[in-house]
Write a structure and sequence with these properties.
The protein is an alpha+beta fold. It is about 60% helix and about 10% strand. The chain has two domains: about 80 residues, no CATH class; about 170 residues, 3-Layer(aba) Sandwich (Glutaredoxin), CATH 3.40.30.
Length: about 250
């Protein structure tokens, strides 16, 4: 389940970021924004001057590169989301936390083996408690560990039995995705383990995990957690404040 696409994307983003930062320079900003001048219409001398401004600015402020890359990723992901938003927000039956009938939907791409996903659990729990109209759709993206797919499959089997939230909590509390931890979480959440083992092998489960990987590739996600809410896409353990802001904005739209 290795995805090499993000490495290609990263190279592209860095190239585009260097070009995009031209707008931050005095000359680039004045010529391209205020006067609506296309770069292709500039004279060789003007292009050279702009290149010097960009070069000097990047050397003096290298911290803008990660910021620019992040912005470009967000814009690209949001653009890609437009055509698949409804599918992304449609949960595997039962793989939902919060209010299953909530009017605001937050989608989390998660992996039970992901440390940053585990660190986001407290913020997510508080967000659910503070927003009774919030539905959290969990899309499993099992890419961290060799045992991630088995843990994800058991999570979907728990969803089949109507006990997904309990399994989700028990699995992250375990902190591991080895077979013993998966079974312990299944028993702790009250699953019929034999039935769950059979359900985890169903074609529907495999299809769901493959679909999640395809969605992640389409949206440019290179890790977990990643979040989708409304037309917004966030990546990483962004914290409660960022998630709460996104929820509030989605509620207004």
């Amino acid at each position: 389940m290795t995805d090499t696409q993000p490495h290609t994307r990263s190279t592209l983003y860095l190239t585009l970021a260097a070009v995009g930062i031209a707008g931050l320079g005095a000359l680039g900003g004045w010529m391209l924004e205020r006067n609506r001048v296309d770069f292709a219409d500039l004279s060789p001398g003007q292009k050279a001057a702009m290149g010097k401004v960009v070069h000097d600015y990047i050397l003096e402020h290298p911290e803008v590169l990660p910021e620019a890359v992040d912005k470009l990723r967000q814009k690209d992901s949001a653009r890609q989301l437009a055509g698949i938003a409804d599918k992304v927000a449609m949960p595997y039956p039962g793989a939902v936390m919060g209010n299953p009938a909530g009017k605001v939907t937050l989608v989390e791409f998660s992996d039970f083996a992901c440390t940053y996903c585990r660190q986001s659990e407290a913020a997510l729990a508080e967000l659910i408690a503070e927003n009774p109209d919030l539905k959290v759709v969990v899309r499993h993206l099992p890419i961290i560990a060799q045992t991630s797919p088995a843990a994800a499959a058991m999570g979907l089997a728990a969803a089949d039995q109507g006990k997904y939230p309990a399994f989700h909590k028990a699995m992250f509390a375990a902190g591991r995705t080895d077979p013993a931890s998966i079974e312990a979480a299944a028993r702790a959440s009250g699953l019929d383990v034999a039935r769950a083992r059979q359900a985890a092998q169903r074609p529907e489960v495999r299809a769901e995990l493959e679909a999640n990987i395809a969605f992640a590739r389409k949206l440019g996600f290179d890790g977990t957690p990643a979040w989708v809410i409304g037309d917004q896409v966030l990546q990483g353990a962004v914290g409660k404040e960022a998630l709460a802001k996104a929820v509030a904005e989605a509620r207004k739209s």
